[in-house]
Amino acid sequence: MDATFWALVALVLFFVLIAYLKVPGMMAKALDERADKIRDELAEAKRLREEAQHLLAEYQRKRKEAEAEAAAIVAAAEREAAALTAEAKQKTEEFVARRNALSEQKIKQAETEAVNAVRAAAVDLAVAAAEKVLAKKADESVQQSLFKASVGEVKSRLN
């Protein structure tokens, strides 16, 4: 009985004690529990990953919708600005046309007034000249007859 024999006996007793205390079952159970825990963690990680991908897809869809809406708003604003610009241009052209027409009307009126003033001055000058000529050539009896004829003409026109 040497030391090797006792070492073999101790080893066999150790294995028997381990089997008696059900250490392999406990180890298998612990490993199974750990495997289940790892499997659950992997399943949770997979579920979280799928949820994150779903959220990412939803946010990308919302971003695209927001970009499309922003583009539509910008396009509408550009159309409105173009319409306002065209309207302002048209109103400005109409204003300028009205001002030109008003200016032309005032010019024509001034021309007419000037022509009338010249005509009146010419008539006044002609009447004054006629008076002087008639005064020199007409005697008292001719003047009286002309005066009476003029008064009669005025009376007939007033009635």
TrEMBL record:
It is a single-pass membrane protein. Keywords: ATP synthesis, Cell membrane, CF(0), Coiled coil, Hydrogen ion transport, Ion transport, Membrane, Transmembrane, Transmembrane helix, Transport. It is found in: Cell inner membrane; Cell membrane. Residues 28-94 form a coiled coil. One of its GO terms (cellular component) is proton-transporting ATP synthase complex. It holds the Pfam family ATP-synt_B. GO terms for molecular function: proton-transporting ATP synthase activity, rotational mechanism; proton-transporting ATPase activity, rotational mechanism. It comes from the Bacteria. The chain crosses the membrane at residues 6-23. Its main location: membrane. F(1)F(0) ATP synthase produces ATP from ADP in the presence of a proton or sodium gradient. F-type ATPases consist of two structural domains, F(1) containing the extramembraneous catalytic core and F(0) containing the membrane proton channel, linked together by a central stalk and a peripheral stalk. During catalysis, ATP synthesis in the catalytic domain of F(1) is coupled via a rotary mechanism of the central stalk subunits to proton translocation. Component of the F(0) channel, it forms part of the peripheral stalk, linking F(1) to F(0). The b'-subunit is a diverged and duplicated form of b found in plants and photosynthetic bacteria. F-type ATPases have 2 components, F(1) - the catalytic core - and F(0) - the membrane proton channel. F(1) has five subunits: alpha(3), beta(3), gamma(1), delta(1), epsilon(1). F(0) has four main subunits: a(1), b(2) and c(10-14). The alpha and beta chains form an alternating ring which encloses part of the gamma chain. F(1) is attached to F(0) by a central stalk formed by the gamma and epsilon chains, while a peripheral stalk is formed by the delta and b chains. F-type ATPases have 2 components, F(1) - the catalytic core - and F(0) - the membrane proton channel. F(1) has five subunits: alpha(3), beta(3), gamma(1), delta(1), epsilon(1). F(0) has three main subunits: a(1), b(2) and c(10-14). The alpha and beta chains form an alternating ring which encloses part of the gamma chain. F(1) is attached to F(0) by a central stalk formed by the gamma and epsilon chains, while a peripheral stalk is formed by the delta and b chains. Belongs to the ATPase B chain family. This is ATP synthase subunit b. The lineage of its organism: Bacteria, Pseudomonadati, Pseudomonadota, Alphaproteobacteria, Hyphomicrobiales.
